[in-house]
């Protein structure tokens, strides 16, 4: 397996140079997060990822999880790695200081998430899900629930889950059947079966806190009759230690294509004691707080795997000697040239690189707005940031995970047959990446969210948060000759996105199936255009920084080459996407179900 | 796991109605292969695939192969299934009747191959590799070798392998080190290590015949110094039974992402006795006979998995109830509508369908030309067919396997979380399909074959075998109003292909890296345009047949809808590909190796 090297240089570029995130320190609560604190945090995170989490990634995949008498054993090394992770404070970094957290800006946290997921996605699932449960409780729980659970979730001695899916319902949670019966003491008895529960049972923490969607007896049908409950594995004692065992059990674990060291459980709730979180029948809204955050985090998983695959590919392409350059021998002292001399290999490496660095920039861009949404003193700035984050969340989730999977497959193609066997670890990235396109709402569902809930909503207010700055940027650089190689293709892609937006909005009003028919292609068009905008900005920043302080290590020069590559070799996809969108939905709906 | 239903209706459409393969019966040796024999053969093949091979596909994946004391045990059911396969004559169908074969046209054999690979790709590897060895011996072996080995390979009591790859050389066979020392009796002693040897060791046959590339002591360096040897596991006795054990052993088997029931072996040759096949130092050419055939066969694997994934997706999309149609409830008697009502699900199903049926038509088209190449009485027809097959071989291999993998992934996306767990078998298709893009020359190597060896060769003679009929077809249908929805997009794609061809040929002459930079995109552009041509023809045939004999089962109507879908939703990709090609290779080559 290739080593993992935290891409700190590029992270600093994105955080400090490209997006100026140091100004986040001006927001209340973020005062201490100046560059001299952010950089060491990223370094330390990189260290534990490279030295503790990455070495058990492949062995964890080989070994997988085992269910023994209702207890899930994680693979060798996982409990010890978790102990170090927890003791290092990594479960607490973005949490509320009131409950023991460190309050790190999301703009830096996404980079930590990226590194964890590069190093060991399966491991990252445990604290990742836990953070989702933390958020739901933090946003919607009563003071009593918060005091009981948040400090433990923050310090990582306990972990959390999200229990949504049931055998007959995933996307359509309105169908769910799990029941909650009110008790005299104000608690509830929760009964039902949940499937696909990540981290539902494991041996990393002393207690597991389930956030469970269920129906109250008087619940209206469908998705407006769902409430959210907190159901601990062990009922907390008055002293805050794990007490009596609750009626929740893991009855089996799934055999999956990948993320094998992450336990995916079938959870049976049998009159388990739980407490209502938020208002009755408002569970879905409460869950969505957490799901939006999880969707951004899943985007970070895609990014992490994209980076890991890129690193593995480059290492192999430099070492593997095979054939000679078509333009003459490049390594005369060796029996063959390294395969990195071949243009088609470089094409694959640059596709990976353009995707990874582009997504990293987008991740921090969106996360910075999330920080402003939560901390900015001016309400209109908060609102604008909230709109932007709402708009970009489905794009980050779907685009990053699609590109993560594409990167892992490009990596396997660079490695050839050696990529298909387990030894190099590349095939694990492919298998691990594949789930990210599915969970937390399939990428098709993300696309429907974009066209259905974001595109036309509030008279296009969400959209303007993206369209206005991009239009201004293009206009503002139209006369800058050195930016021409970037602005011209970006303007073309942006024009296509504008055309598609108008068409999809108009057609979708008349016939919602038209919006559905366009959704996936529209989301890709949007995502690629957004990356185009960021690549133009990255090229501009690289030029400016290079003029300012030179380019001793060639970092800024490489950035500009990758930007050109993106414009020449990726952005043209937007033309095909526009044509596909304009074709409309008629042909899709023409066949009877029986004709398939 | 979803059932497998042999797509016999579509196969008959392609073979008889679209491509008129019944006229193959006019060729010498094919006299008996009229429709009344072809159809029952396909039906019988479908039966053994659906009833014998498919039921052990998932169990075979779960169990995998085991190496015990140098012997590989295939999974439960494999030896028995192989016995039935062999006794049914399926190892012999396309072989030379002189050695016990049945001489089936390749045009029908590709459909049998497709079904085997739909049902159980791992199983198909054993007879598939064996057929490669048969071909190499049949084309290049001495009479004595042929008499000794071919009847056993044909009747399937023995099997064969292709031993090319070594740890340090895959694509670049010029680096290979395995040695062959001549002996006084005219035989050779072969010593060396081969890796990634499919079916190198197993328990299905009583003997295994290795075709091995090695160097003679006086061999020139590089790829012009490689000879081909036949090295049996057991030396045949005078009676033709397996005799003394030869010095070849399986030292380990690979742990792979997929095709786990296919044994992938490290083979150690230790002074193993072998015999030269063909002329000294001409082994690579001899191997290429077999490799071209294997490349078409691997294309058939991609096609088979594309079909299997499509079937699994459709079955799930019809059964899974989730949400309601955006245009109003479609199944009021059910708690939710089947997901096939959603346009984005239909988009995925139609992408799968368009790929599968398009590739099936292309497979038979190319295979029919292969039959003409070998059997047509007129030399100029044979030559024309040979050119066409040479041109299309890399496209079939790469395009079909790329689309097979894409189809399997679309299938997983249709199934959502249920696709990621093993139960439904869809994730196995993804894992199994992935290798087909790599082995027998990665798809990048296929692209280099296309632009490097086929595009400019012989003054463009290869290309004309495709360009002329397509240009004529477009011209001939320019005035047919009912064909306009197909001809207009096809003409656009074809124009792009012509532009790209001229550009790549011209730039590649000046700088071979320019050809390499364009290769993968060019191949995709070529492949999609070729599918566009076939989809236009399929639409035309469907219209004609429908007028002629009605369309009681809606088959012809569905064909036309799928053709329109292909034109509207797939063919636009050609525009992006052309832009990417026109961008040239400069940016690809701009970065120093160290800058990656």
UniProtKB/TrEMBL annotation, chains A, B:
Residues 467-592 form the Acetyl-CoA dehydrogenase-like C-terminal domain. Transmembrane segments: none annotated. One of its GO terms (molecular function) is flavin adenine dinucleotide binding. Residues 282-450 form the Acyl-CoA dehydrogenase/oxidase C-terminal domain. Keywords: FAD, Flavoprotein, Oxidoreductase. InterPro entries: Acyl-CoA_dh-like_C_dom, Acyl-CoA_Oxase/DH_mid-dom, Acyl-CoA_Oxase/DH_mid-dom_sf, AcylCo_DH-like_C, AcylCo_DH/oxidase_C, AcylCoA_DH/ox_N, AcylCoA_DH/ox_N_sf, AcylCoA_DH/oxidase_NM_dom_sf. It comes from the Bacteria. Residues 77-156 form the Acyl-CoA dehydrogenase/oxidase N-terminal domain. It holds the Pfam family Acyl-CoA_dh_N. It catalyses: 3-(methylsulfanyl)propanoyl-CoA + oxidized [electron-transfer flavoprotein] + H(+) = 3-(methylsulfanyl)acryloyl-CoA + reduced [electron-transfer flavoprotein]. Its EC number is 1.3.99.41. Its cofactor is FAD. Residues 162-271 form the Acyl-CoA oxidase/dehydrogenase middle domain. Belongs to the acyl-CoA dehydrogenase family. Involved in the assimilation of dimethylsulphoniopropionate (DMSP), an important compound in the fixation of carbon in marine phytoplankton, by mediating the conversion of 3-(methylthio)propanoyl-CoA (MMPA-CoA) to 3-(methylthio)acryloyl-CoA (MTA-CoA). This is 3-methylmercaptopropionyl-CoA dehydrogenase.
